[in-house]
Amino acid sequence: MRRIPTLLRLAARGVRREARRSLLTASAMALGLALLMFTRSLADGGHEDWIDAGVRMGAGHVLVQAPGYRESQSLDDRLSGNQAAAALAALAVLEGPLAPLATTVRLSTNGLASSASSALPVVIDGVDPKTEAGFSQAAERITEGRYLEPGDRLAAYVGQGLVERLGLSLGSRFVLTAQATDGEIQGQLVRVVGVFRTGLPEVDEGLVHIPISIARSWLGAGEAATTVGALLPVSAVAAEVAEAVRFDMGTNDVRVLGWREAYPELDAALRIDDYGDYVFHGILFAIVALAVLNTVLMAVLHRKREFGVLQALGLTPAETGLVVFTEGFLLTALAGVVGMIAGATLTWVFFRNGLDFSFFISEEMTFAGIVIDPVIVPEFRMVQVMQSFLSIAVVGTVASIYPAYHATKIDVGEALKFE
């Protein structure tokens, strides 16, 4: 233990003596860490944007539904008025990072949209215009007219594709037909007040928003709903919010889903994208490990006489190996600090407003059935910074083990002859 300060001084002197080699290796490691931090923050920002777009196209990060609704998509599996109110109350009491940004109540069913020229199958969403305007992605993509407003009667907000297929225009009337809660097929005359375009043909041709009050009256649903949804500040808290809502409602008569269960295609696509990132990071770690291994091992091979003299003066083989290992550790620590600063600078000084990929595409960017913003803003998380730093530190430290072991096997007599 008394020799540790001496060993540290020897290691630091070794790093300084081979300044050019040490600088090149530390620079390669720092560049690797900076690149790792940038790509990881860009991937996290992109994933959060994709999730936000997906849940806004759907019904939120957290959904409360009747147990069988997800499979049946039928009004037979609906929430009662009391259950919908209880779900909203459970969401309203959440505070801090768990507090929803917005909530929505929907009564949705499959039906038929008909005009004088044609008919198309559609999903009919009865929505609350007051809450849905700031919730749904479709509500933000108006091309003509306006979104639904409180007090609207017989109004419909439809996609551009549906307008074209049915030969409609702003102000046109058409008929929605669906099965009511009593099992009878009922029709409802509505008028187009707004048109949207998401860039997804299946949505633009197959989605109709009408006021939930009209949908409930037309379908005989009373105060019922099919879904209560919540939009959260970040997707990472969805599972915690879902668990809190389950606990608060305290009943098996409802099903509470986080976005991963509600949108499995989106979840699978994000996991696949993550696997691609892991492959890239694995290659990056291998390059860093080889750089450290090469530098430290070459230092051992070129300094056999020095290590022989040190052992002749009283250093044990283990202490000689510790000097070499410490040199690798010092290089890694130096590169880690510089890399973190470089990564933060690269990410926030140059790209804090986002990286615009629209230059590379001519149409809408889609991912797992959703339209995404071509401008991706990096998301800088401290946990990711520490993970990146620790990953590089572990790789650099492990890569120093073999050169250190090699140094312990130096023969003193032969080393003293070495030039």
Tell me about this structure.
- This protein has a six-stranded mixed beta barrel with strand order 2-3-8-5-7-6. A two-stranded antiparallel sheet has the order 11-14. Strands 12-13 form a two-stranded antiparallel ribbon.
- It has two domains: 4-54 and 267-417, no CATH class; 59-262, no CATH class.
- The chain is of the alpha+beta class.
- The chain contains 16 helices and 14 strands.
Number of helical stretches of at least 4 residues: 16
Gross geometry:
elongated
Could you name the ranges where pLDDT drops below 50 across 5 or more consecutive residues? none
Q: What is the count of β-strands? A: 14
Q: How far is the first residue's CA from the last residue's CA? A: 32 Å
Helix content: 40-55%
Instruction: Estimate the mean pLDDT confidence.
Output: 83
Major sheet details: 6 strands, mixed, barrel
**The number of domains:** 2
Q: Report the radius of gyration as a whole number of Å.
A: 31 Å
Tell me the strand percentage band: 15-25%
Strand order of the largest sheet: 2-3-8-5-7-6
Which H/E pattern describes the elements? Answer: HHEHHEEHEEHEEHEHEHEHHHHEEEEHHH
